[in-house]
Design brief:
Helix content: 40-55%
CATH topology of the largest domain: Alpha-Beta Plaits
CATH class of the largest domain: Alpha Beta
Low-confidence stretches: none
Number of domains: 3
Structural class: alpha/beta
Number of helices: 10
Largest sheet: 5 strands, antiparallel
């Protein structure tokens, strides 16, 4: 009775530690950590990029002579290049890449915009650009540009809705990538085990079970009962010997009942030791059947 109680406690302990070390729990934890880190990097990068403001002012073409419509239709599109020309940006004290022009079709209206690190700088520079564009007298002699109103300033960066959306998307992508990589690593480990078993002459299907599977003890018990043989747990390298002994003690008594031959459960590291696995399995007695390989 006491031995059965001790075996039950050991089995429960193995289940608990197995669940805490389970592939699913570790996978969720690693994916969540990767997602959190990547999302944080995106947010921090946005913070370090600093604020940016955009000031906008409108200029309107008005007639002062004949052939106004034709002159405006031909000349107003050139305002895009004039506003970003070296002479204009030099007068305004800004840079061409920070200046943009939006033409409103069939209206003679254009919107000049300048981006800058501060609201005051953006407002000052866009006012200077508008003044330089009006001074260029692009539509003479048929028309003239005039500034409609004062500049309006808006903050364009950081754009927090966009930043949070990008951070969320990057976090999801990172989490999925980590999960995919870990899944591929697990698949490669199982493939290496099966190749080692094949090289040792094992032709029947063998279960490859992660050592952190919460249902490990139950699965091995079922395999032992199905094989109608006592289960023997063997570590293929010294590094997993203690783990193999703990697993053997956690198996219920009925898995060790006398029978014809032995059902072998080999315990191997998750990475490496495939040659040792082939050697141990290849040296098994004729009455020993390999039923499972556990990745510790």
């Amino acid at each position: 009775m006491k031995a059965r109680l001790v075996a039950g406690l050991r089995s429960a302990w193995v289940r608990l530690t197995g669940w805490l070390r389970s592939a699913r729990v570790r996978l969720i934890g690693a994916s969540a950590l990767a997602a959190l880190l990547v999302g944080a990097v995106v947010v921090v990068a946005t913070l370090f990029a600093g604020e940016e403001y955009q000031a906008r002012v409108s200029v309107l073409a008005g007639p002062v002579g004949p052939q106004y419509g034709e002159v405006v239709a031909l000349s107003l599109p050139a305002l895009v290049e004039v506003a970003r020309s070296p002479s204009v940006v030099a007068k305004a004290g800004t840079a061409a890449e920070r200046v943009s022009v939006e033409l409103v079709p069939a209206s003679g209206l254009a919107r000049l915009s300048v981006r800058a690190p501060s609201a005051g700088q953006a407002s000052t520079e866009v006012t200077a650009v508008a003044a330089a564009v009006v001074e260029a007298d692009l539509l003479a002699p048929a028309g003239r540009l005039r500034v409609l109103d004062g500049p309006t300033v808006t903050r364009v960066a950081p754009d927090w809705p966009l930043t949070l959306g990008l951070a969320l998307a990057a976090a999801v992508a990172a989490g999925v990538a980590v999960a995919a990589v870990r899944h591929l690593r697990g698949t490669r480990a199982a493939d290496g085990v099966r190749a080692a078993l094949a090289s040792a002459g094992v032709r029947h299907p063998v279960a490859v079970v992660p050592g952190d599977d919460p249902g490990l003890v139950e699965r091995l018990t079922v395999l032992g009962v199905a094989a109608r043989r006592p289960v023997r747990v063997v570590a293929v390298v010294p590094g997993v010997a203690a783990w193999a002994e703990e697993l053997a003690e956690a198996l219920p008594d009925k898995a060790a009942e006398p029978g014809d031959g032995v059902a072998l459960v080999a315990v191997v590291p998750r990475e490496g030791a495939r040659a040792e696995l082939a050697s141990v399995v290849g040296a098994r007695p004729a009455d020993t059947t390999v039923v499972a390989v556990v990745l510790a």
